[in-house]
Structures are given as C-alpha cells and as structure tokens.
Amino acid sequence: MVAEQYVCLCCGYNMIGHAPDVCPFCGAGKESFISADQCSEKFKVTEEQVADGVFELCSSPKLGLEHHAYSIESEQGRVCIDCPSCFDHRVEPPDIISFTHHHFLGACNMYSDYFKCSIAVPEADTRNYIAAPFLPWITKIKGDFSFNDVEAMWIDGHTKGFTAYFWHDVGFACDLIIANGDNFMINPYGPKVPTMDACREFEEEGKKRNIQTVCTSHGSMSFDKWSDTFKFLLSK
Ligand SMILES: [Fe+2]
Fold it and tell me: Which of 17, 110, 164, 202 has the smallest count of CB within 10 Å of its CB?
C-alpha cells in the first residue's frame, strides 16, 4: 500500500509517491494532478456489457484520455484487460489485471492492494520508465500464454511487448487503431510498419477464431468494422 498517489486529469496517468512537476506521460503541469483519494471521490467506474461475459470499464465522468479497460467473466475467474485510471472499490473484483502494454497502467496498484489481484505486464514494456513505479506490483509476462481461458498473443508492434487477448468470440486490440474524432488512424505513437504488421496479425487471428467483437481503447465494435477500418487505413 502506498501513502501517496496522484492522478493526471489530462491523461489519467497515476503517479505513485508524489505529484510530479510535469506528468511523465503527457507533459501536463503539476496543477493537473489531484490525489488518488480525490479522484475516487470525483469519478466512478461504470461497467457496461459489450458482449456475453465482457464488460467495458469507463470512468464517469470521463477522466483524461479515458482509455477503456475491460472485464471478462471467464469460467475460472474474472480477468481485466487493462485498468481504469480511477480506483473504485465497487467494481466486480478481478483475479488478475493483464495489460496489453504499459501506456495506461491506471490505478492497477490500488486495485491489486484492495482486491489482492495480480498485475501482469508484458516483460518488454516493463523496462519503460512509465512502468517503473509499478514494478513492485507487476508480474512480468512474456510471449503467448493463457490465464484461465483468456488467451494472450504477443504481437509486438505498437510497443515491444504489445499483447492482444482473445476470449470466446471477443478480441482485445486496445489502441492498435485509435479514434481521432469521427475518424480512425493506425496508432502513430510507435513504429509505423511494426504497428501495421501487428494490426494485420490481429486481423488474421481474429478471422481464424471467428471473432465477432473487438474491444479497443475507445470502445467496442464489430470485428467486421474493425477489419474494414484497418483495410481502409492501409489503402490510404
Ligand atoms: Fe498505447
């Protein structure tokens, strides 16, 4: 348990230990930080079902970049993919929070302390300074693996450790493709060609598995829509 934690209202990054002069993630000034306790008073986490057994976790009202996380009611336990920036003890308790990559670790350490759940982050992404304060909570994962019946596939690309997840007919692509207003773009915050290759790998795997729903960092959509969006972006 940490004594102090602060949350950046511009992006949602959780700073463990002290409020920094500048947000390590988005560069916002000190005035953008509130304490994690204030954050929990001001925001709550909503859980909305987006597929059988899959719930989208969002902050209400929106917090920072509002990176959406997901909760899977798997047969052997509850698996969260990524984590909200705001800590809310009223959410369904997860057994594990497993990350696609290190960009939005949110308040995972607080969820871990409160619910005694484990935190899994792709090993290659744990070397980044953004993940450093969370290392005491993190279990490093590498390559492909499965937790309960949720399958993780290391596809690299957007970040070195980027890992997609699949469960039944739902795929978790996180921010491989991001929304820009009404438009979409292949995530530009990473190496271009490897990110496109990662999108291609996710699409091929999704087809093989007959995935129906894709959960992304900005919401869920049908696999066909995600796939068409990717093909459109490739053709531009
Ligand atoms: Fe990202």
Answer: 17
